[in-house]
Design a protein that fits this description.
The complex is a heterodimer of chains A (182) and B (173).
Chain A: H1 7-14, H2 22-26, H3 28-46, H4 48-57, H5 59-80, H6 86-90, E1 94-98, E2 113-119, E3 125-132, E4 137-144, E5 151-157, E6 163-169, E7 174-179
Chain B: E1 2-6, H1 9-12, H2 18-40, H3 43-59, H4 62-66, H5 70-92, H6 107-122, H7 125-136, H8 141-148, H9 152-166
The chains are: A alpha+beta (182), B mainly alpha (173).
């Protein structure tokens, strides 16, 4: 008999992400654990809190929740601040590097995978390059970007040497982040 | 720095339908809640973690959607979110133990709380992540490596160091 399945493997099977392995059919302990896990999952999803949370996360509801304060803010700006500069409303463009957990990083290890994300603040396209310590630029990305404060555009693998990642947006503004690779 | 190749924009943005969100919730929310509940021992905090993980999944989901094993992303982000709650609790409620025994039932859960309490006092964030995946979730070292996005070799080395640190503290299960 091989080792019992881990919590991760059982969660994957119970969630329908992986087929039940042969081990499950031949191991009473894992079969029982899987049955219990499925029952727990079903019980969780039947809880009123879960149904309410699911409804809050669903797109139609999310957009409505977002729309109400946005409309209110829009009206307030129109009435009280009609000449507000566009820059103030849109904010500044950004470029960030995110680790696997989605956290912004300025230090990384060789071989680590990062996500390059940008916030156009009104710009619709961007050119991103990495400049090494010798000032040599390496193009990373060029293209249109979706609206949003931190829109992922590509995956990167970290190689040795510090770099400065520079994003130049089509409206003339730019942003940069320095990545230190000890 | 090496580009891994740009992903198509449609793969990066939200834009999920209601059905898709419901499917993701049914697949992953029970897992997130169970893990968060184990680490935090409070229903209210565990619900907060579910909300945080799904907000991240739906608004910044490139990491999630790019995973060969999406459950590893869920484990990793849930663990991080739960540990952040524990740290915040330590600051907010300094007179209480960070690892609450509130609603702790069953010998396994009580043991998990006791272990976690010792880990919080003696280990770094990364070590707590590794320890919780390995000892509380029963993941293999390869799975821990997958969840944390590290090489197996690195994890083997870290687990050896972890054992050497935990054994004298009596903080191994």
């Amino acid at each position: 008999m091989s080792e019992h399945l881990s919590a991760l493997a059982l969660d994957e099977i119970a969630s329908g992400l992986a087929p039940a392995s042969e081990h499950v059919t031949s191991c009473a302990q894992c079969a029982a654990a899987l049955t219990a896990l499925r029952a727990q999952n079903a019980a969780f999803l039947a809880r009123p809190e879960a149904r309410a949370q699911q409804a809050r996360l669903a797109p139609s509801r999310r957009s409505m929740l977002w729309l109400a304060p946005a409309l209110a803010a829009g009206v307030a700006l129109f009435v009280f601040w009609p000449n507000a500069p566009t820059e103030r409303i849109k904010g500044s463009p950004t470029v960030v590097l995110l680790d696997a957990a989605g956290n912004e990083v300025t230090r990384a290890s060789e071989g680590q995978r990062l996500t390059l994300a940008v916030g156009g603040a009104g710009a619709s396209s961007v050119k991103v390059s990495a400049v090494d310590a010798n000032g040599k630029p390496e193009p990373l990305f060029a293209g249109e970007i979706a609206p949003g404060p931190r829109v992922p555009v590509m995956e990167l693998e970290v190689t040795p040497g510090d770099v400065t990642v520079i994003a130049e947006f089509d409206d003339g503004r730019s942003a940069q982040v320095r990545l230190s690779v000890p | 720095m090496v580009a891994m190749g740009p992903k198509p924009r449609s793969d990066m943005n939200g834009g999920l339908t209601r059905d898709e969100v419901e499917r993701l919730y049914a697949q992953f929310a029970p897992v997130v809640f169970r893990r968060a509940r184990l680490l935090l021992a409070r229903d209210a905090d565990a619900w907060d973690v579910v909300q945080e993980v799904f907000e991240r999944m739906l608004t910044n989901g490139s990491g999630f959607r790019g995973e060969a094993r999406p459950m590893t992303w869920v484990y990793r982000v849930t663990t991080n979110a739960a540990l952040n709650h524990l740290r915040a609790r330590k600051v907010r409620e300094p007179l209480l133990t960070a690892v609450s025994n509130e609603e702790a039932t069953g010998p396994e859960r009580v043991e998990a709380r006791q272990l976690l309490s010792k880990w919080l006092a003696h280990l770094s964030d990364r070590e707590i992540e590794v320890a919780s995946l390995l000892y509380l979730d029963g993941l293999t070292q390869q799975e821990v490596a997958d969840v944390l996005g590290l090489s197996r070799k690195t994890i083997v080395r870290e687990v050896e160091a972890l054992r050497a640190k935990l054994e004298p503290l009596g903080a191994l299960p």
